[in-house]
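Fill in residues.
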């Protein structure tokens, strides 16, 4: 009998190799494991006796990888209490990652913990023209000093760089005449929607990484649908050609119960 390597996949049990506290509420867990990976894909992380949740890979080498977690709900707060030697299970990686074409000038736009999936992308992109990173305040900037490409920062409180939105800086760069063949973005969905609108106005293709409630990771349960797209299987990275047809982008999402709610209600629930 033939087996499906995705749906028949059982968790691989790994021990935490290292834990790095990034700032208040964020930590990165490192694991020694050779994981096939493309920037933008994700894994399902299982804490025995608790639950399983999707996380992007924030660092990837030949024989190790890392996930960066923000303490928001019960699962993520528990994950941040894990220490070296603690055991978790992983499945994956799943989904479609970012399309990368060498020779294309690119802008990378990260909002808050949206820096995590964009970090491995930035490690692989040879032609980043503009790298924008926004956060609540200076202390919430992830991975300071990691990248060779300088970042343009903005913060809600003005403690670092521009006081305001990442889209302010993206629009400023476009108006100043910078050419982008592609814009990559991840962060709050309203931010990504504004990036998409800005790119549409100026005729620039973009790719964004969406978040929805993912239960299975491979498109069977239907919990993460966004319009006609199944985020875990068709995404989580979507090109502007897909976003134009996604009526639920920046509007609707499903709760764990399957109830459709406004996006603001969904993210309030996800933070519980």
């Amino acid at each position: 009998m033939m087996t499906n390597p995705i749906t028949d996949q059982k968790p691989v049990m790994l021990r935490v190799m290292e834990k790095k506290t990034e700032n208040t509420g964020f930590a990165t867990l490192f694991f020694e494991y050779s994981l096939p990976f493309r920037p933008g894909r994700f894994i399902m992380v299982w804490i025995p006796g608790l639950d399983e949740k999707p996380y992007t890979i924030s660092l990837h080498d030949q024989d190790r990888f890392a996930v960066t977690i923000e303490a928001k709900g019960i699962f993520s707060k528990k994950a941040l209490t894990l220490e070296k030697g603690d055991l978790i299970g992983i499945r994956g990686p799943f989904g479609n990652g970012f399309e990368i074409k060498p020779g294309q000038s690119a802008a990378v736009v990260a909002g808050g913990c949206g820096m995590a999936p964009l970090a491995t992308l930035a490690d692989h992109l040879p032609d980043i023209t503009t790298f924008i990173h926004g956060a609540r305040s200076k202390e919430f900037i992830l991975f300071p000093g990691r990248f060779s490409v300088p970042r343009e920062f903005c913060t809600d409180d003005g403690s670092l760089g521009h006081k305001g939105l990442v889209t302010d800086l993206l629009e400023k760069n476009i108006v100043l005449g910078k050419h982008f063949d592609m814009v990559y973005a991840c962060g709050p969905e309203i931010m990504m929607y504004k990036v998409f609108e800005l790119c549409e106005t100026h005729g620039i293709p973009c790719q964004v990484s969406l978040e929805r409630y993912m239960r299975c990771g491979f498109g069977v349960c239907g919990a993460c649908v966004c319009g006609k797209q199944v985020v875990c299987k068709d995404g989580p990275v979507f090109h502007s050609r897909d976003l134009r047809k996604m009526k639920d982008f920046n509007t609707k999402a499903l709760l764990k119960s399957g109830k459709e709610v406004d996006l603001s209600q969904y993210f309030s629930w996800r933070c519980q």
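The chain has seven helices and 19 strands.
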